[in-house]
Amino acid sequence: MGGVFRPTGSAPDAPGASSSRTISRDDALEKVRTMPEVEEYIAMLKEAGAHGAFNVEDRGDEWAVQVYEIVQQGEDSHTATFNWYRIHKSTGAALKEFE
Question: Where is the composition biased (Low complexity) (predicted)?
């Protein structure tokens, strides 16, 4: 399961607009947030009383989006990563880091 997610065909934002629109940081984050597996993970965390979090890093031609939770252990805490997703800025293609 997993692999590359390709965006469905869509019309440019306006007549005559270029179809090579650059994917913004917010676009990449929204793309990852709305993936069914991420929505399921966030819902599972909420049911357990935990909270999901997102981290977005600029990696040149791609955005790297980390989906994770912060796990409290007494006074200490650490992150537990669900997955990293690489979103290509030109194509919008998404690739999961972990299968």
Answer: 9-20
